[in-house]
Amino acid sequence: MQKVPINTEFITLGQLLKIVDIVDSGGAAKYYLAEHPNDFLVNDENDARRGRKLRIGDVIKVANHGEFVIDGN
């Protein structure tokens, strides 16, 4: 499981995709989420909303890319 450190209250799912290098831009994140809506689990629930707020402790699973946990600094 890869830790994703943040120093804000939350990040969005779209931002996470950019941070972990799954996509290069916000537009690419929007397209990727629309094309692969069943590839995302946030805390074991399917959720592919680009604006989904991810907070410290949240676990995100992305099919074919791995598992990530939001970690505070």
Multimeric status of the protein: single chain
Task: Report how far apart the termini are.
Answer: 17 Å
Q: In the CATH hierarchy, what is the superfamily?
A: RNA-binding S4 domain
The largest pleated sheet is described as: 5 strands, mixed
- The spatial strand order of the largest sheet comes to 1-7-6-3-4
Q: If classified by CATH, what would the architecture be?
A: Roll
Number of helical segments? 2
Strand fraction equals 25-35%
Principal-axis shape equals globular
Q: Count of DSSP E strands?
A: 7
Determine the mean pLDDT: 94
Can you walk me through this structure?
- The protein is an alpha+beta fold and 73 residues long.
- It has one domain (2-72): RNA-binding S4 domain (Structural Genomics Hypothetical 15.5 Kd Protein In mrcA-pckA Intergenic Region, Chain A, Roll), CATH 3.10.290.10.
- It has 2 helices and 7 strands.
- α1 (13-19) crosses α2.
- It is globular and about 30 Å long.
What's the structural blueprint in terms of helices and strands?
Blueprint: E1 2-6, E2 11-12, H1 13-19, H2 26-35, E3 40-42, E4 45-46, E5 53-54, E6 59-62, E7 66-72
Parallel strand pairs: 1-7
Antiparallel strand pairs: 2-5, 3-4, 3-6, 6-7
Helix pairs in contact: 1-2
